[in-house]
Give the backbone structure.
Amino acid sequence: MEEIYKHLKKHGLFHEVCQLNQNEVQIHIIWGDWKHDHALTDYLMREIGWIRTNQIVTEENGDDSYSSIHYYTKIN
């Protein structure tokens, strides 16, 4: 999990990461912009071998920012 924190932090993202098991994590994005937080997190996670398998929106108001939980599975 340390690798994830370091990689996200290097790119200015400080989301909460929860490890579900050795090959699965979830990342909580609170009121993040769809492009600069949600899409960027997915891209950065792919760079280090994780793919998003699910996303649950927890808060939204019709704007470009919303809260959600992203689920990732290790692919390598």
Notes: The helical segments are 2-10, 34-47. The chain is about 30% helix and 50% strand.
